[in-house]
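Q: Can someone sanity-check these two? First one:
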Amino acid sequence: MRLGLAVGNPMEWLAKRLNLVPWPLVDTQMAFTLARIVMVSSKIGLFDALATTPATADEIARRCDTNPEGTAKLLPTLVASGYLRASGDTFELTKSARKWLLSSSPQSLNDKLLFQFLEWDWMERAEQLVRTGKQEDFHATLNDREWKLYQRGMHSVASSLAEAVSRSVPIPAGATDLLDIGGSHGAHSVALCRQHAKLTAVVLDLPGAVRHAAPLLAAQDMGERVRHQVGNALTDDLGTEAYDAVIIVGVVHHFTEEQNRALAAKVARALRPRGTYTIADFFRLPHASKAQQLPALMDFYFALTSQSGTWSPEEMAEWQRAAGLTPNKPKDLPTGGLGLQSAVKE
């Protein structure tokens, strides 16, 4: 998957082909302008305002309690970008916007867009990383309000991925105990437990994560089948032969090579025979000539915000192999760069 310039007619195709279009401006000014418009539209409740009936610009402004002229300026961009349809003076949501941006949708990314206002500020430090190598660990600096934004944002992303991830995670037959490392909101554990009737899960995460993720997990109505445990997988003992499966989704990019190796060794001890350890994350390809845009962007983002970055499936498999596990072949998911690297305890 790649972000970038999309042509709308043969003349534009030719201009792009002949390198006449100043595409760096599309990747920068146009990209950040569109991003901010969509984020602001979500924040003011514009998409929710159109949940039931189409509306004119003035009606949308009344529903959102915003300025009519300012609100009207957002609408043409949202139409041209596929979020709204226009018919005369009225506007309505597209099918895609209903799925991804209505707060009532199970796949809603609305909370993630709100969290992105915080991420927007973090990205201002990009030059600092390039010039000085200085990195940040946002987990160590989040205040209570930001922890809440973070957990709700990550839950909205996970909810859109959980089904695809859970279908691909290998769970041993008859498994009863799952450990979800850094799973906070529990979306992936919930999806797996719903697929495997005998399975129960422990979601291990930091205090700030659990505090604000607890209501999100409670809303899933999974009772004692999925429960939180406050802790730190890097420093806590995970036990011996306590679990049939361990998953870690979207977390290893926060850890260093040494930390990931040590964690794999602890996971191997915690697994029962035939147990599985599954890492789900963005895959970094080993050579820049083969880099995919989305994973490459995420590698830079995680280097900036968590002092590490993405890893290749070969590196993940080596952590597992060094821990005495037998790695499976990596598996790409249809989610824009996310993949699974699983291993089995023989």
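And here is the second, same format, sequence then tokens:
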Amino acid sequence: MNPSERLRVVVTGATGNVGTSLVRALEREPGVASVLGLSRRRPRLSLARTEWAEVDLSLEGDEPRLAQYVADADAVVHLAWRFQPTHDPATTWQTNVLGSVRVFDAVAAARVPVLVCASSVGAYSPGPRNGAPVSESWPTHGWPGAAYTREKAYVERVLDTFERDHPQTRVVRMRPGFLFKEESASEQRRIFAGRWLPGQLFRPELLPLVPDLDGLRFQVLHSDDAADAYRRALLRDVRGAFNLAAEPAVDAGVLGRMFAARPVKVPSSAVRGALATAWRMRMAPASPDLFDAVLRLPLMATDRARRELEWTPARTSVEALEAFLRGVRAGGGDATEPLAGRRFG
């Protein structure tokens, strides 16, 4: 590749779970000249070809700086997303939806040739009753009860309009399953289980039983494998959506084998009731509406990513979960504020 053709890539949410994996993958990519990582807080992470800049996508006042950072980009990867506070969905909407609109507006104004956007399995409508995997053509209306799935679905509609109005920009939407790695474990424990749950509790010898809930079957992917798919999408002339997941799909049987524990049937209503009580008392950060959404997620077929991106996950879903559990027990983290490693607190 001619050095003058190497890409200048801007990554929003570059200090998060997938962002840190992606900037490292782009550091090793000969087709990338430089990376500008955008985040609310400048990280301590030092990489040879990556520079950092601070921008808050939730703030209208940061729009001029965002436009400046995007102005000379060859490609923008939009990863920034806020999961909390679930008790204040207006706050997450400000970052996730209005922040995404600000990124897309900046991309359009600068006529950036490539936009790769992080969507999710959560954008999909509930899956078919027979449990068959869905392709990228499955409706993306989300589950209306949960803020996360509503916001992912809304951003999909914004992208529909963007693609119609700006055909000169090649738009790619990535729809991965649950993304895990060892370095993201502390952050994800804080987001979904709370900062006061000790990571040492996640040990096989302490979990003799795992709940077997109707509808609990989901797909997992290592964050580094997701980053590899993003890298390939930047460099190939592809458009549209790509499902991303590793095998096997995770259910109570898979979890039971991981923990050497016995699956036990538990009514989902009982679990939801307990979660709702804990959430209302602010003892659990994950809302019961998100639990409802998870039980309705479809399984995704990943044929298109394997065919058009020539992408294959390097790790199984079990290996990704095992990496996450190692990180939870050890307080795994990275040199960024979102991924700060803590075993407790």
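A (reply): Looked at the second one. The mean pLDDT is 93. Residues 89-110 form the longest helix (22 residues).
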